[in-house]
């Protein structure tokens, strides 16, 4: 299974949100827009404070640990198998 992620990096008012909205309109499929603060705040503390979670390096590199990858896999499988789920 693959997960596609687009990371937009830039200063305040650089146009990241506008670019994200345009990409959502242009790209096939469903793309979610999440600010990094929102994503990190949604994680339990144990996944924000260890290599098992998600880390953001000063150069903009994003790394996911084993636990985050397992959670993503389970969530994705559950999403596809949910009865009555509307297909995007």
Automatic annotation (TrEMBL):
Its EC number is 2.7.1.-. One of its GO terms (molecular function) is transferase activity. Keywords: Transferase. The keyword Transferase applies. It is an enzyme of class 2 (transferase). Pfam families: CPT. This is Chloramphenicol 3-O phosphotransferase. It comes from Deinococcus soli.
């Amino acid at each position: 299974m693959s997960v596609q992620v687009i990371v937009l990096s830039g200063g305040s008012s650089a146009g990241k949100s506008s670019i994200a909205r345009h990409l959502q309109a242009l790209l096939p499929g469903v793309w979610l827009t999440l600010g990094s603060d929102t994503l990190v705040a949604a994680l339990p503390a144990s996944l924000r404070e260890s290599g098992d979670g998600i880390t953001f390096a000063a150069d903009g590199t994003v790394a996911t640990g084993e636990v985050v990858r397992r959670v993503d896999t389970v969530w994705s499988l559950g999403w596809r198998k949910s009865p009555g789920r509307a297909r995007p």
